[in-house]
Design brief:
two-stranded antiparallel sheet, alpha/beta, globular, 7 helices, 9-stranded mixed beta sheet
Length: 253
């Protein structure tokens, strides 16, 4: 049965990869996403479906053919060649084969007008997809940088962002000072085409972006880990599911 025949919109979650633990399926590469991301989509009305990077790279259109919306999750660093830079000593691990699949799906999704939501790496990746660049490490942004890689439980709120009035993000989580968690060491530098800033940390770090058409929304923090400790963050996932529902209905006409 086509998953799109159900009542819930199907949300494709772009997959990450890792090698299996020693002694367990020795030498196997595994495709995965986090349980928190899956639950955040499911609890807010969507059917979460993993989109493996290898399938996305092989045939992006077929890989997401069942999807009504896409979620770009957190993960390792973005391959710097994608924004025309060579890797600096401060960069962390990056996976070109994962980013190839994510990029191909993104190009298709932009053309097909699929609703998109980005989290952490996904926030940065959508910026690169639209021609923007990144700080390979947030230390390169300047002095007086806040702690953006918290040393606590992922469900804790550890710093604030200032959400711009009149934005889609503000309609979901409120305008002004909003508390978030923070687990990243890279950040958006130059904005991609058609994107606008919707939130910043007190040190100027870009923490939220969206486009004027309502196709793209992204945040630098990890709302999937806050759906219980900061329930307002559920609205970000509910918004993606609602945009996906509208997309599916339009496609069915």
């Amino acid at each position: 049965m086509d998953m799109g025949d159900g009542k819930r919109p199907v949300i494709g979650i772009l997959g990450l990869t890792r090698m299996s633990d020693p002694g367990l399926f020795k030498g196997s590469e595994l495709a995965y996403t986090s349980t928190a991301t899956i639950l955040s989509v499911f609890r807010n009305g969507g059917i979460p479906v993993l989109i493996p990077a290898v399938a996305a790279a092989e045939d992006p259109e077929e890989a997401v053919s069942c999807c009504d919306g896409l979620l770009y999750p957190g993960g390792e660093d973005v391959t710097p060649w994608l924004y025309q830079e060579e890797p600096l000593p401060v960069i962390g691990a990056f996976r070109p084969e994962v980013d190839e699949g994510w990029m191909k799906v993104g190009r298709y999704a932009l053309e097909a007008k699929l609703p998109l939501f980005g989290i952490c790496k996904g926030h940065q990746f959508l910026n690169v997809l639209l021609g923007g660049s990144l700080y390979q490490d947030i230390s390169l942004q300047g002095k007086d940088i806040l702690q953006h890689m918290q040393r606590y439980d992922r469900t804790y709120l550890t710093h604030h962002v200032e959400v711009e009035e009149g934005t889609r993000l503000a309609s979901l989580v409120g305008a002004g000072r909003v508390a978030t968690n923070s687990m990243h060491h890279q950040a958006v530098k130059t904005l991609g085409k058609g994107l606008k800033v919707t939130a910043r940390a007190e040190d100027g770090t870009i923490e939220g972006m969206e486009d004027e058409e309502g196709q793209i929304l992204s945040v630098q923090w990890h709302p999937e880990d806050l759906i219980d400790s900061a329930p307002v963050m559920n609205k970000l996932f509910a918004d993606l599911v609602e945009r996906a529902r509208v997309y599916r209905e339009g496609r069915a006409r």
